[in-house]
Write a structure and sequence with these properties.
Length: 209
Amino acid sequence: MEYLDLILFELAGRPVVLIDLVSSVLGLICVFLAGRNSKYNFWVGYLYTAALFLLFWNKNLYANLMLQPVSLAINIMGHYRWTHPKSSERSSQDHRALRVSMLTGRERVLCVLGVLLVAFAWGWLLDTLFPTDPHPYLDSVVTALILLAQLLSSLKKWDCWLVWLAVNVTQIILHLSVGNVFMPIVCALYLVNGLWSLITWIKLYRRNA
């Protein structure tokens, strides 16, 4: 799959290849649609997962590649939940759609504990199996936060955007620390979309939508 490494242009002396650009565009479209409360974000999400699988396979990033089936499963579950809500979960504006809700205080504590547990376990595994990873535990925190954000998004909890904001800030720091130039720009776009989406979903929650 040499064509995946096709260099499209350079940014600050670093090459931007085809698969990087394709996966970034699909990811931005996916989160933009999710932020606008569109169920079509899941269809783009399937393509995004496939693009990430190719990206990680092509770059021999097997630790990240192994998580893609989990992301796919969450995407499928979210697609079903958004389009097949229980009678008590339906939006007041569209009875065929799941309404936006929020986590309870207890659920938020459990989410934090879950992130810490997964991050520690995954970090230890990365450090053991892939000792060349320069930031195994920071990578693991980002991974755990991404999985939590995906899960909360699939349940249509507006809290998911708080987690996505944490992911975006952490990823910007992570990419800058290893000298990446293109991905911090992409993450900054995610950050802007996350702020906009957080405001949008809180408004939907207050309207019981």
